[in-house]
Amino acid sequence: DLGEYGEIPYHLIDIADPACEEYNLARFCRDAYPAIAGIAARGKLPILCGGTALYLAALLDGYRLPGGRLPHRDAGLPRERQNPEGEESFLPPFELEPLLLGVYYPRAEVHRRIEARLDSRLADGMIDEVRRLHDEQQVEYRKLEFFGLEYREISRYLQQECSRDEMRDRLLHRIRQFAKRQDIFFRKLEREGHQIHWLRAGREPEPEELIRLFLADLPLPAPVLRMCDTYYGRK
Length: 235
Description:
Largest sheet: 2 strands, parallel
Number of helices: 8
Distance between the termini: 39 Å
Number of strands: 2
Strand content: under 5%
Radius of gyration: 21 Å
């Protein structure tokens, strides 16, 4: 979707070679903080947009990522969880003071939008994108499976493990499941004290007014809804 960006500068897109590099939470944290600091140093407002809730939480909560190899079990030292690269330990260089805005739709509308987006992406060449990654950039199917749901299911289709319709329906089901897990993660962030301003259809309350108050360091109104208080089941 880079064609939609126009003159808006972006960061941390197309920064890893899919054929030979691994990109994970540890690398993201190491890349994100310098990008945020550089934007702020130029007098601009950094915007963290979209992405997996875990990656946003890593910055909001200042995840500390122990590095290096695990000590031997007989060394008598704590065996903390290590990052997968075995690099030096990572400590957040600064804390963020964020304004959190989220786009809210009722669950039925979320499901409808997911289906429409999936069908649009399939029609716009997503299958060809995965095919080029494998055929032209020599990315193995085994590795493509770790790139996300779409790459995993389309790789199965390209290997003739399922039909196109089966791939599409399975992918739709799994993306909806993923959206539900993201919903649960954002509810967790709210319960842990992060105030998220959910915007109905992205417009209500007026996001520009919230941003104006935030930049002027003025009090913000209470969120109009909390995801962790929203119940989707039958009453």
